[in-house]
Amino acid sequence: MAPPTPKQLSDINTALDGLVDALEQHEQWSSDSKPPPGLFFVHDFATRSKYMLSEYENIKEGKALQHPDQFRPAPGKGENAAVKVFDEVCGRTMMLKMIIDDKSGKAAAMSGGGAPVDYGQTVRSKFADLMAVIPPDAMMRGMMGGI
Predict the structure, then answer these.
(1) Smallest Cα–Cα separation from 132: which of 101, 92, 90, 95?
(2) Which pTM does this prediction carry?
(3) 27-61 pLDDT tens trace
(4) DSSP of 78-111, one letter per residue?
(5) Is the torsion defined by CA of 114, 119, 124, 129 positive or negative?
(6) Terminus of the chain with fewer CB atoms < 10 Å: N or C?
């Protein structure tokens, strides 16, 4: 379980930024009204992943976290704890994939109800950019709970 390189951390952060921006530019995203539950859920999920990744160095160095309540359970301290959080961020991409790719409505029901959302080509493209920089081994460890 090798720690991520600074380039991996940067690439994933940049890709998450692109995905969050694309979600906020989605035609159903509006500051005037509530977006559909599925769109809101995906945005919240991606934003939380971005935050978790932003705390990598603080976890590694044993420093205080800005929002410790965003981690369940608490991540602990040190390099192994930081790598587990990195792996979790990578594993979370599979949940995003399941929701973004779903056409049946099952994922929409799971993520707050409402009609399925057509995320459109821009969101799908930004998600593909994210998947391109996720290390497969870290994704698998994250999906398996750090095993």
Answers:
(1) 90
(2) 0.91
(3) 999 767 788 888 888 999 999 999 999 999 999 99
(4) SHHHHHHHHHHHHHHHHHHHHHHH--SSHHHHHT
(5) negative
(6) C
